């Protein structure tokens, strides 16, 4: 009798615990690539863009990771000062090469690519927050397979982590659109671009959450890709606010990468893009429902904006 009561109690505990687990907040980590840029854009100076990004991150008390492309500015004192502002603010730093070459290009050798990583790392060495994390440029892990495997072996031997993205976005496309509009008219209205960006991110977020459930049977910790650009300087506050309002919980990229999914190495011959998309393709699921919304030309929210001229 006692035994069966215990059994019932244990069953009740499990029954109570399950819904709680299912309702746990979706976790998301923020990463920004390609920064800091010293190039000129409308509206904000390079310093003002950098500060606007950090202000949004500080306001929401988020720890993000900046993946530095050293040739965009960090190789000069004024650019390195911008990187230092990130590490001084307790943010994490990763490596995104010197000049952003494409490993899949036949013109780029494995040795050249590795040299790009090492040279950028030398510039960042000693900064607090610097991790041995590498973010592949264009999220391309190398083609043909010998290149991909060569990078994987080298990274393992050198202690690098592949800083995967799971939640890939086309924020760079919207940034080009935003800059084109503001170059034509620095005072142009941009609220429609802001809304398209938020809609785009939420559509991708839901799609990658669904793909995670399909491939892993659970909600993995998502790693969001954005860029150090004018778009996010203007709207990152809104982006973080939107995810929070939807009930998503920001965690540090360091915590996200502890999710065992980030130890996987998809065997797809064209590994790259979102880790989840690579996994789907490795499993022969390249054409699952909604896949076309996860590639750059499937962004209806962006297409709807039409040409960059301001709305009337
Ligand atoms: Zn990049």
Radius of gyration: 21 Å
**How are helices and strands ordered from N to C?**
HEHEHEHEHEHHEHEHHH
- Mean pLDDT over the full residue set: 88
Q: With helices defined by DSSP (H or I, 4 residues minimum), what is the helix count?
A: 11
User: Ligands in the structure?
Assistant: zinc ion
Principal-axis shape: globular
CATH topology: TIM Barrel
Low-confidence stretches: 1-20
Question: What does it look like?
Answer:
This protein has 312 residues and is α/β, with parallel strands linked by helices. It is 47% helix and 10% strand. It has one domain: TIM Barrel (Alpha-Beta Barrel), CATH 3.20.20.370. It contains eleven helices and seven strands. Strands 1, 2, 3, 4, 5, 6 and 7 form a seven-stranded parallel sheet that branches. β2, α3 and β3 form a beta-alpha-beta unit. Bound molecules: zinc ion. The site of zinc ion has 5 residues, from β1. Zinc ion binds next to β1.
SSE diagram, text form:
Layout lengths: L1 H21 L4 E9 L10 H14 L5 E4 L8 H12 L3 E4 L14 H15 L5 E5 L10 H14 L2 E2 L8 H14 L6 H26 L5 E6 L2 H16 L3 E2 L2 H4 L18 H8 L17 H4 L9
Parallel strand pairs: 1-2, 1-6, 1-7, 2-3, 3-4, 4-5
The structure holds zinc ion.
Zinc ion binds next to strand 1.
């Amino acid at each position: 009798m006692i035994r069966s009561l215990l059994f019932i109690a244990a069953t009740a505990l499990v029954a109570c615990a399950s819904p709680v687990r299912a309702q746990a907040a979706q976790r998301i980590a923020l990463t920004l690539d390609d920064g800091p840029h010293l190039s000129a854009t409308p509206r904000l100076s390079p310093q003002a863009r950098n500060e606007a990004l950090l202000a949004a991150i500080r306001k929401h008390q988020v720890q993000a990771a900046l993946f530095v492309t050293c040739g965009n500015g960090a190789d000069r004192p004024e650019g390195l000062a911008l990187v230092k502002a990130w590490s001084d603010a307790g943010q994490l730093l990763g490596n995104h090469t010197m000049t952003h070459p494409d490993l899949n290009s036949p013109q780029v050798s494995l040795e050249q690519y590795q040299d790009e990583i090492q040279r950028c790392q030398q510039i960042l060495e000693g900064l607090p927050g610097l991790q041995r994390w590498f973010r592949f440029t264009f999220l391309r892990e190398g083609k043909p397979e010998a290149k991909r495997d060569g990078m994987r072996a080298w990274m393992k031997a050198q202690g690098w982590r592949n800083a995967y993205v799971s939640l890939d976005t086309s924020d760079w496309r919207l940034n080009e659109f935003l800059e084109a509009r503001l170059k034509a008219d620095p005072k142009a209205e941009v609220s429609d671009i802001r809304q398209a960006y938020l809609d785009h991110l939420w559509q991708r977020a839901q799609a990658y959450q669904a793909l995670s459930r399909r491939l892993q049977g659970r909600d993995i910790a998502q790693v969001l890709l954005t860029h150090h650009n004018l778009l996010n300087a203007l709207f990152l506050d809104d982006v973080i606010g939107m995810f929070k309002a939807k009930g998503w919980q920001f965690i540090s990229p360091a915590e996200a990468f502890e999710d065992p999914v980030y130890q996987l190495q998809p065997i797809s011959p064209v590994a790259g893009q979102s880790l989840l998309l690579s996994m789907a393709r490795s499993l022969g699921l390249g054409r699952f429902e909604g896949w076309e919304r996860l590639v750059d030309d499937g962004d209806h929210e962006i297409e709807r904006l039409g040409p960059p001229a301001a709305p009337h």
